[in-house]
Design goal:
- It is a single chain.
- By secondary structure, the protein is of the alpha/beta class.
- Helix content is 48%, strand content 13%.
- The protein has one domain.
- It is globular and about 60 Å long.
């Protein structure tokens, strides 16, 4: 399976091509307005109205001008998550292996560990964006969520681990075996790939992307069950690809992740077997 990543020399829409397309959209009254921002963090944005009559703004980050530094600015981790996820390693992985069609419309990724009502990272993002929905997105038992209106992906790392523990308690093992670290990688990458897939189908309105590669972007590929299947398969491909191994290893704080697994109840049960 292809990933549509920089590693594959995938065709990338340039900033000039994006602006030309937006000019046509404006002439056809499909969007209200558009503009570009120059400088270190070059991006384009446009205003439009969805099929429900709601106004929205979509920010585009042309991948021909993307840098690891500009992507780094859009990735947010809370302190607890930083103990097991290395931000630079995560950004390196995304920049080299992430789907460029998703990164083009990615306003941000929020990796957080939330098991209490107060959430400093949510409050920080609320203050920055001025949108109180940051306090609610991806709450409860949700492990991943794509905020379509803003193009922001959430992954609840703490909830992922909590559900892993519940699954182990119920079944006596993980679906992949008894290795906590490996199981976490499978779950984390599966959720990430799942949400980035949603991002392409629900936020990237440049239809030529889909017309040129219907094998990779089938018409029904955005349905939830298909996104779920695709995300799990994509994670498995990443984890089994020796060319991506070093990049994946760089995401995780292996020693801290291993210690975390040893602290959890199912590790104690495993030792007593």
């Amino acid at each position: 399976m292809k990933h549509h990543s920089r590693n594959e020399n995938q065709k990338i829409l340039t900033k000039e091509e994006i602006l030309e397309e937006l000019k046509l959209w404006k002439e056809m009254d499909e969007i209200e307005s558009y503009s570009e921002e120059e400088g270190e963090d070059s991006y384009v944005w446009y205003e439009a109205t969805d099929s429900f009559g709601c106004d929205y703004v979509r920010t585009l980050y042309p991948q021909d001008q993307e840098t690891e530094e500009s992507l780094m600015e859009r990735i947010h981790l809370d302190d607890k998550t930083k103990e097991i996820i290395d931000k630079k390693g995560f950004v390196d992985f995304l920049y080299e292996n992430g789907n460029v069609d998703a990164l083009m419309v990615l306003e941000g990724i929020v990796l957080f560990w939330e098991q209490e009502e107060e959430s400093p990272i949510r409050e920080k993002l609320w203050d920055f964006y001025g949108d109180e929905y940051f306090m609610e997105a991806c709450d409860g038992d949700c492990v991943g969520y794509t905020w379509v209106e803003r193009g922001i992906v959430f992954v609840n790392v703490g909830k992922t681990i909590e559900l892993m523990a519940e699954d182990y308690e119920l079944n006596g093992s993980f679906p992949q075996g008894n290795d906590f670290t490996q199981e976490f990688k499978v779950n984390f990458l599966g959720t990430l790939c799942h949400e980035l897939r949603h991002l392409v189908y629900e936020c990237n309105e440049f239809g030529d992307l889909f017309e040129k590669d219907r094998e990779f972007y089938p018409n029904d590929g955005g349905l939830e069950e298909n996104v779920e299947e695709w995300g799990n398969e994509e994670a498995g491909i990443f984890l089994s690809d020796p060319n991506v191994k070093d990049s994946i290893d760089g995401i995780f704080q292996e020693e801290n992740l291993r210690k975390l697994g040893e602290e959890l109840p199912f590790e104690e049960e495993k030792e007593n077997e």
